[in-house]
Structure formats: C-alpha cells, structure tokens
Amino acid sequence: MDNIRRQFIKGGTALVAATSLYLLHDAGAQEELPQTKKRYALLHDETKCIGCNACAEACRLTNQVPQEVARLRIERTGPYGEFPDQYYRFTRVSCQHCEEAPCVNVCPTGAANIDRSTGIVSVNSWKCVGCQYCIAACPYHIRFINPVTHAADKCDFCKETNLREGKQPACVMACPTGALMFGDLEDPHSKIVAALNSQPVYRAKEDLGTHPKLFRIRAKAGEVSL
C-alpha cells in the first residue's frame, strides 16, 4: 500500500513540476513575443481597376477556394454614357472586415471572430457548425458555405496563406494595374494611411455603423473606356 502511495505522490509531484515548467515556459514565450496590434485594411482604387479578374483567380488559387464559390469577385456595371464615350465600373465584392461585425455577434460557437492582433475578421472552420447565422447577418452578402469544409467561408486577407509567409494578400500581388493597396491603419507611415489621407474615399453601407475596413476610390466617368 505504501509503495503504491509513494508512486502516486511521486507521479503527482512530477505532474505539478511539469505543469509549472510549462506555465513558466509559456509565460516566457509571451514575454519574448509581445503582441503588436495592427489594424489591416484594403483600398480598392476603382479608377485603376480594369475588371480583369486576376485578383479573384489569385485568391482562388492561393486559398484553394472551390470553383463553385468565391471569396472575391469583381462586379461589372454599365456601360454608362453614350457611344462612343461609354465606360464600365468595377466593384470589388468581398468581406469588408468590419470593426463592428454582425457576423461575429451572431455566431453561437465563436467560429466567427475578429483577430485582435490584426483586426481581420476570421472564421475558425473547426468551430463552425454550419448554422448559417453569419450568412444571414452579413449586410454585404459575401459569406458562403465552403462545399469542402462545410464551414462558413470568406476573404481573410490571406491570413492563413500569404500573410503567414510575410507576403501581401494574393489579390494585391496579382493586380496588374496597382488598383489594390493593403496595409496597417495603425501605422501612420504606411502607404495606405497616406493614400486614405490624400484623396476622397468611401465605404459600402457606412450608415449601418459596421465600420468596414475595405475602402474604395470611386470610379469616375471615362476612367475605363470601351
């Protein structure tokens, strides 16, 4: 009996010691890697967009998005004006990365969340139960159920692919006209902050109070002509 008891105490002591070491190690790791809060945003310059869909194809390839769905698409409207002075407008349709995200507020499992270190609205597919509450709540109608993962899906600024490798989002890298700009709103020296401060921009459905972080430079008549 004593022998069993000693073994039990010995095992318990070892477990406590191991747990303590783990906690110390974890605390140390957090001290070594301080969290730097960022607030990523995207600027779509509609005056430069030619509707080539290179951004959408790069997104699909990089993030392995099935053909029947899309995280990003370019919506073409027009032509406007009278022949021969007609033109089209190209609008990016993707997640707005709202700071007050309705999709996050309605998620019952926490699968939809805002990454507090980047401001990116994300989806944890392992937590998603496919209830589609987020799809119903999104005022921009950009979420969908991924037919492979059976979880809600959408643009995450390539958080799990290009950003993890220190690259720009795939759509930004693929754009042949430089119509897309990605950066940190918390960095006063970033190009995107300079761009936002130097020209008029707008955001979709601002009256809803969702504070989207997809900014747009409005297309002007004649910018992209037939």
UniProtKB/TrEMBL annotation:
Keywords, comma-separated and alphabetical: 4Fe-4S, Iron, Iron-sulfur, Metal-binding
Domain 4Fe-4S ferredoxin-type: 40-69, 86-117, 119-148
Pfam short name (any one): Fer4_11
InterPro entries, alphabetized: 4Fe4S_Fe-S-bd, 4Fe4S_Fe_S_CS, ET_IronSulfur_Cluster-Binding, TAT_signal
Keyword Iron found: yes
Source species, domain of life: Bacteria
Protein name as it appears in the record: 4Fe-4S dicluster domain-containing protein
Organism: Shewanella avicenniae
